[in-house]
Amino acid sequence: DIQMTQSPSSLSASVGDKVTITCRASQSIVAYVNWYQQKPGTPPKLLIHSAASLQSGVPSRFSGSGSGTDFTLTISSLQPEDVATYYCQQSYSTPITFGQGTRLEIK
Amino acid sequence: EVQLVESGGGLVQPGGSLRLSCAASGFPFSGYYMHWVRQVSEKGLVWVSRIDPDGSTTAYADSVKGRFTISRDNAKNTVYLQMNNLRADDTAVYHCVGGRDYWGQGTLVTVSS
Fold first, then answer.
1. Which of A90, A105, A106, B64 is most deeply buried (CB count within 10 A of its CB)?
2. Does A31 touch chain B (CB under 8 A)?
3. Pairing mode, if any, of strands A4-7 and A53-54?
4. Which of B43, B100, B104 lies closest to A91 in CB terms?
5. Is pLDDT at A31 greater than 90 in this prediction?
């Protein structure tokens, strides 16, 4: 199984800050990474697919990068509505696996 | 508008069975891989199973292999998860997912005596 190691597990930042979340795969997954945002009481929402492609309707302050084993989700200027838990997911092979999640709070 | 509506969850005793259903609308269901993903409270996401668009190929997490069966009816735009021999650690909210894009709100499965 491919393990997805996500860090940090929690993060506190100020409005306007640049925020970076990383995910490392246990083997190369090319660019088969998706990033999701989940707010309490709601299902996950797709932000980024194929490592770097912004999902339609998602604000441009969100971006993704990486290939092979190392991937990054970046929020260029943190907004209050970005408070949520973020997950990476590999879809390279089954079993599909998720990172452990990053809980993002406003300082 | 895309909708995925899960049903069939509930309280069941260990060793019991449940059948989850997910009714989809607003996207070309018959062209999509469909998944079930579960989540315990506000904890992490765990992929359970996947079925390909025509239903010919399925995949399962090791933890449910041999106990759960995924199926679909493209005429009814519905995907199913038959869950047998349920265990306490199967307790979770089960989400139906279309491709990578579309998630249902989930249905709660509680396995307890």
1. A90
2. no
3. unpaired
4. B100
5. yes
d(CA A64, CA A20): 10
| Lookup result for tokens 């491919």 | A2
CB count within 10 Å of CB B32 equals 21
In three-state form (DSSP H/G/I as H, E/B as E, the rest C), the secondary structure along chain A is CCCEEEECCEEEECCCCCEEEEEEECCCCCCCEEEEEECCCCCCEEEEECCCEECCCCCCCEEEEEECCEEEEEECCCCHHHCEEEEEEECCCCCCEECCCEEEEEC
What are the pLDDT digits (tens) for A42-78?
A: 999 999 999 999 999 999 999 999 999 999 999 999 9
Residue position matching structure tokens 């949520």: A84
Residue ranges of chain B whose pLDDT lies below 50: none
Shortest distance between the Cα of A89 and any Cα of chain B, in A, equals 9
Nearest-by-Cβ selection for A101 from B44, B61, B101: B44
- Nearest Cα to A32, choosing from A64, A74, A75, A6? A64
Nearest neighbour of B101 by CB, restricted to A46, A85, A97: A46
Q: Please tell me the distance in Å from B91's CA to the nearest CA on chain A.
A: 17
Give the tens place of pLDDT for each residue, B52-68.
Answer: 999 999 999 999 999 99
- Supply B91's token pair: 């307790």
Flag whether residue B104 sits within 8 Å of chain A, measured between CB atoms.
yes
Judge whether B97 and B5 are in contact, CB under 8 Å: no
| Distance from C-alpha of A36 to C-alpha of B58, rounded to nearest angstrom | 24
